[in-house]
Amino acid sequence: MSARSSLWNTAKKCVTIGLIGVTVKDRYVSIAAVRGGSMSPSLNPVTDEVSGSRVSTFDDYVLVEKFCLGRYRFSHGDVVIFTSPTNHKERHIKRIIGLPGDWVGISHIDDVMRVPEGHCWVEGDNLLSSLDSRSLGPIPLGLIRGRVTHVVWPPSRIGRVKREIRQPTVPSY
Amino acid sequence: MFPTLNLAGDVLIVERVSHRRGKVGPGDVVLVKSPVDPRKTITKRIIGVGGDWVTFPVGPGNGDRSRSVMVPKGHVWIQGDNMYASTDSRNFGPVPYGLILGKVFCRVWPPEGFGSISH
């Protein structure tokens, strides 16, 4: 009898912890793994930008906060994690370069475009190997799943992920 | 979404599981985060998914011209049932599948309209 009741107690604790964990993960904070070197040197730094060989063999793990999803108010330079517009099962981590209404320069075709309402322009820090708005176009803000605030693993790289404002590439006349 | 749904006051049951498994397709009425304002949720019907060609009249009140568009991979084409008064993919283009929030399962209010939403 006592074995059954202790099993039941363990089961109740697991379900409670599971529910709390899922709620926290969906609404407050979660941890995500960074794959690839498109955000080097801020995340997963690479030694050689062309070949992509990495400084460390381990991927960075980052803290993602979900409070920003209440009002969808982001700032230039925020690093965000978003669902890919071409495959809803994939997520990407990039930096916000342009917000709705901004003019962004597309250097490879020498043109500028205005970021539409409800969208943002994202680019990786490592422009040589980053799949971002330069090929995918502006990303709807609704695809953003959270904002990256800190690196939590490996221990040598624990620290804030800083908001870096890149100078806009629009030519000024 | 008139006449499928009333202009205001309908209460629907929305299930939020099938879109995560990719099981939402043409004919389904879905809740979508608006691509124009992420704080708003819109209810539309899926007309086509990635790879489909969709044909729609350009301005339903303005004659018979129509346009055909190929829906890119990973996107869906959504339209409201009330073609004359709906802002949908005909205005803002195909929307990424990741913006879908859930599928409308059935209506519970008003009582006369109780039951599943028709195709």
From TrEMBL, chain A:
Primary localization: mitochondrion
Any Pfam family the entry gives: Peptidase_S26
GO cellular component terms listed in the entry, alphabetical order: mitochondrial inner membrane peptidase complex
GO MF annotations, alphabetized: serine-type endopeptidase activity
Top-level taxon in the UniProt lineage: Eukaryota
Protein location: Mitochondrion inner membrane
Family annotation (InterPro entries): IMP2, LexA/Signal_pep-like_sf, Pept_S26A_signal_pept_1, Peptidase_S26
Swiss-Prot/TrEMBL GO biological process terms: protein processing involved in protein targeting to mitochondrion; signal peptide processing
Keywords noted in UniProt: Hydrolase, Membrane, Mitochondrion, Mitochondrion inner membrane, Protease, Transmembrane, Transmembrane helix
Membrane topology summary: Single-pass membrane protein
SUPFAM superfamilies, alphabetized: LexA/Signal peptidase
Cross-referenced PANTHER family: MITOCHONDRIAL INNER MEMBRANE PROTEASE SUBUNIT 2
Family: Belongs to the peptidase S26 family. IMP2 subfamily.
Official protein name in the record: Mitochondrial inner membrane protease subunit 2
Organism: Punica granatum
Organism placement in taxonomy: Eukaryota, Viridiplantae, Streptophyta, Embryophyta, Tracheophyta
UniProtKB/TrEMBL annotation, chain B:
One Pfam family recorded for the sequence: Peptidase_S26
Designated name of the protein: Peptidase S26 domain-containing protein
Entry's Gene Ontology BP terms: protein processing involved in protein targeting to mitochondrion; signal peptide processing
Protein's organism: Punica granatum (Pomegranate)
Main location group: mitochondrion
SUPFAM superfamilies: LexA/Signal peptidase
The keyword Oxidoreductase is annotated on this UniProt entry: no
Function: Catalyzes the removal of transit peptides required for the targeting of proteins from the mitochondrial matrix, across the inner membrane, into the inter-membrane space.
Peptidase S26 domain sequence ranges: 1-56, 68-109
PANTHER family the UniProt entry points to: MITOCHONDRIAL INNER MEMBRANE PROTEASE SUBUNIT 1, PROTEASE FAMILY S26 MITOCHONDRIAL INNER MEMBRANE PROTEASE-RELATED
Keyword tags: Hydrolase, Membrane, Mitochondrion, Mitochondrion inner membrane
Subcellular locations according to the entry: Mitochondrion inner membrane
Gene Ontology cellular-component terms listed: mitochondrial inner membrane peptidase complex
Family as reported in the entry's similarity comment: Belongs to the peptidase S26 family. IMP1 subfamily.
Superkingdom to which the source organism belongs: Eukaryota
InterPro entries found in the cross-reference section: LexA/Signal_pep-like_sf (IPR036286), Mito_IMP1_subunit (IPR052064), Pept_S26A_signal_pept_1 (IPR000223), Pept_S26A_signal_pept_1_CS (IPR019758), Pept_S26A_signal_pept_1_Lys-AS (IPR019757), Peptidase_S26 (IPR019533)
Subunit structure as annotated in this protein's UniProt entry: Heterodimer of 2 subunits, IMP1A/B and IMP12.
UniProt GO MF annotations: serine-type endopeptidase activity
